Amino acid sequence: MKLSVFLAVSLIALAGCRDGRPVRLILDTDLESDVDDVGAIAVLHALADRGEVEILATMVSSNNEHSPACLGALNAYYGRPDLPIGQVRAHAVGRPSRYAEQIAKEFSHNVGEDVPDATKLYREILAKQPDRSVVICTIGYLTNLRNLLESLPDEISDLDGPTLVARKVKLWVCMGGQYPKARDRQSNFKFDGDSAHVAVRDWPAPIAFCGYEIGVKIDAGSSLRNTPKSNPVRRAYELFNDLQDRHSWDQTAVLYAVRGAGDIWDEQTRGYNHVTADGANEWRPIPDKDHVYLIQGMSPDAVAAILSDLMIQPPGGASQR
Q1: Among 197, 189, 129, 127, residue whose Cα is nearest residue 164
Q2: By the 8 A CB rule, do 198 and 146 touch?
Q3: Are strands 265-268 and 272-275 parallel, antiparallel or unpaired?
Q4: Do the beta carbons of residue 141 and residue 93 sit within 8 Å?
């Protein structure tokens, strides 16, 4: 493997945590189909409470009418009720959810019916940030990123989408696909395959892919039984699978986005991820682009222990290992 832009970015992000500068991050989630999105949001807030990340905004990539309010309830539980939330408009897709409506109804939040357009919110947030400072972590469909790339100069910024991304984004961490080659289309790519194809092909900044094969081996969630019933993360896992362990695809992407590879993963940096318009993907050795995919390093059980500790951490970071 070569010392690529990706490895340098990973090391820079990790160094930023060590010298007290939190990673500036936008999370983009479908928050409807699987419960690992909820677990990932818990991990993100726990890392924010530990001072490792500054959450700039949280986006919804599905058109599920309850997902923004569900996201608002999760943000509010962790003491961040005013985190900006945007939702996809153009090219929107969605699937049913076992938990989004109930979480939105059972837990307090301040999300109204008029949720901002995610593309506009992306542009507003990115325009205000220092150059090459933002990490975007997607744990759902790639529709919002496709729409961002297709955005035109406006009153927010005189830069079009690709130019704005190239100037402001340091790294995009994407939970999606399977590596080195997908046996079947992974959900985050499959349900809006055209957006996955366009976003990955045209993204003008480094991308790190956390594939299906990583999270499927890492199970977490049952430890939420040890948290209060007032915890909406516990309630979501209860609604989804009666508080059983669930694969941790999205949590691993968030952990990497904040902490880098560390001792947990290795990285394949040579080659690029080829995504077709139907959402299939494979890693190709040439040309060599600014793409990387994660390879399991630490044992899945050890990673699950790290994630479980973060998922059950009370708001404010009272429990820290």
Answers
A1: 127
A2: yes
A3: unpaired
A4: yes
pLDDT of amino acid 3: 44
Indicate the helix (H) or strand (E) that contains 46: helix 36-49
Q: Answer for the pair 102, 72: CB distance below 8 angstroms, yes or no.
A: no
Q: Which among 123, 116, 111 is positioned nearest to 87, based on CA atoms?
A: 116
CA 188 – CA 145 distance, rounded (Å)? 13
* Nearest of 319, 305, 267 to residue 45 by alpha carbon: 319
Strand ranges in 20-88 using DSSP code E only, listed in sequence order: 23-29, 53-60, 85-87
Q: Which residues of the chain have pLDDT under 50?
A: 1-5, 8, 11-16, 18, 318-321
DSSP 314: P
CB contact set of 8 (below 8 Å; sequence gap of 6+): none
CB distance 283 to 180 below 8 Å: yes
- Taken in order 115, 168, 175, 315, the sign of the CA dihedral is negative
287 cis-preceded (ω within 30 degrees of 0): yes
Q: Give the pLDDT confidence score for residue 20 in this predicted structure.
A: 66
Categorise residue 166: left if φ over 0, alpha if ψ from -120 to 50, beta otherwise. Answer: alpha
Contact 61, 141 (CB under 8 A): yes
Domain architecture of the chain: domains with CATH:
5-90+97-311 (3.90.245.10)
Q: How far apart are the first and last CA of the chain?
A: 33
Buried b (16+ CB within 10 A) or exposed e, 201-223: bebebbbbbbbbbbbebbbbbeb
Q: Per-residue pLDDT tens for 234-256?
A: 999 999 999 999 999 999 999 99
**Count of all residues that appear for the chain in the document:** 321
- The amino acid present at 304, given as its one-letter code, is A
Q: What's the longest Cα–Cα distance across the chain?
A: 51
252 torsion bin: left (phi>0), alpha (psi -120 to 50), beta (else): alpha
Query: Phi and psi of 69, rounded to 5°?
Result: -70, -35
Classify 36 as helix, strand or coil: helix
